[in-house]
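[SOLVED] Need 3D model of a two-part complex

Original post:
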Amino acid sequence: MGKDCGDACVKLLTGNDLTTGDVTWWTGDGWSRHIEDAVDVGDHGETLLAQETAALRVNAAYLIDATATPEGPRPAHIKDRIRALGPTVRPDLTRKPADPNAGTWVI
Amino acid sequence: MYQYDKYDQSIVDARVDEFREQTARRISGALTEDQFKPLRLKNGLYLQLHAYMLRVAIPYGTMSGRQMRMLGHIARKYDRGYGHFTTRQNIQYNWIKLEQAPDILADLATVEMHAIQTSGESIRNLSSDQYAGAAADEICDPRPWAELIRQATTFHPEFSYLPRKFKIAVTAAEEDRAAIRLHDIGLKLVKNEAGELGFEVYIGGGMGRTPFVAPLIRPFLPADNLFSYCAAALRVWNRWARRDNIHKQRIKILVHDLGTEEFTRQVEAEWQEILPLGTDVPRVELDRIAEYFAPPPFETGLSDSIDRSDPDFAVWLDQNVAAHKAPGYAIVNISLKSIGGIPGDVSAEQIELIADLAERHSFDELRATHAQNIVLPHVRKDRLYSIWQILRDAGLAEPNLDLISDIIACPGLDYCSLANARSIPVAQKIATRFADLGRQRELGELKLKISGCINACGHHHAGHIGILGVDRKGTENYQLLLGGSGAEDASLGSITGPGFSEDGVVDAIEKATDVYMRERADGERFLDTYRRIGMAPFKEAIYG
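Solution:
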């Protein structure tokens, strides 16, 4: 993923919600717990990162590489794919506990 | 066990109030994350992959049933119904909300618990022998000294901003169940020829990026001088530590760079400066602390015989029950390593069941072990069968203590923001591959330890078989090590060669155990055979 994604390469802004610690994704006008809502921040990533960090709404925000797919963005690095869904060893605690196929793209 | 006095309670309560205010200021925006982070870390609150993680201190692993129940309460009310026992005899929760963290600390304070010094550049939770006070092979209970160091160093200004974290372990038995030589300071209680109590002092051990087995710095330190000598060692470290380089800040690097002889000379010289100041804790204070660790009122005249007619019980008895110093009693190990389960994870319901067993059958005492299991230290032998039945029904009677499926594993990339690879799935696959209990017992003692990154929270350097997860171009890869030990025969494992995929490392381990089965001499453990025949036959089998 990432370097091989061609025209589908995107940049996402992610972090953890200040009060809950939940993984969050920048949606263009706010933050969502669901990676499907994430948008390509393109060349505006660094500006957004500085702006949102200053706004104190997220912790440890950073930019990642991802690939756009019909099902939603897929992070390039395994760490961010695990962050997007939840621990691979506890499917019951992931974002989609009722979907047995939800984690097929993570590993 | 130790109980707080008014001073202990007041400082813990004050810390809760302080952290509540700090948290409110962070949520309101009055504090930035850069300002708040060191404050939350001083209260054991990390930010991990999916949420905040709270690490709760369990000094030297000792708890009462009431305290254990509180851990279950926190799992149920504030987390997702479970907790994870760690390799530092602590427990951590993976799904904590910042806004609730002060309430958790307040709840913990009601049972004399906290999360202080479970993070940051401080003296971390003191660890000790999980069989302390019960072991047949100990010369005395080491926990009063561990408690003394805990009290003397908690919030001590000189030790609150150390160059890096600092870990101390105290034992008093021949068998090292606390990995003392892999600590910054390892202390073993011994008696000299005159029968006086003192310590063997080991300094400069550790795992992580640069592992070392600690050298013996002093063969006999009079017990009354424990604090001043530790303070001298910390001062020498504070003076020379490489605060400019995070990878070279631990005391093990200093001991290695100076050399054991020069480091020892400097510590001894510093100690001679400190000694006249009278900083050692008075004997009367140690005696006061020791009273809390007086042996429980063991019944006398109990039988040592046990009905072994139930074969499954007999296996558990042989594998998970250890000798106790009091006739008619035994030490029960509760494995948190069910086949295919997550090492160290325990549900709120299981926590409460264990608390109940401790209250009813172990003088209201239990221990967390650095191997991520639980111990009931004082159990009457005539109650073992009924306890086993209760544990079995709760999924807590896996008879695998020190066998290949009794795996130490860090949370790895499933939870940890520092990890490079997942640890838990590898542990699950290995345990499943070797699920046959007969095969495990045939292999005998085999300590397998997995870390998901070079920080070595899973103690991979000290495993008879160790696994280190690394990131190889964005893909998980696992290096295999052989020959480590955290016990009294401490050693560091050696890497076999190129790393493996998740499935590949399980295959490699099976090949290594095949070599052991083929080559072992009578009475040899896996580690013994490795030490006798060396790496070559294992490498040939794994890569040939």
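Edit: The radius of gyration of chain B is 23 Å.
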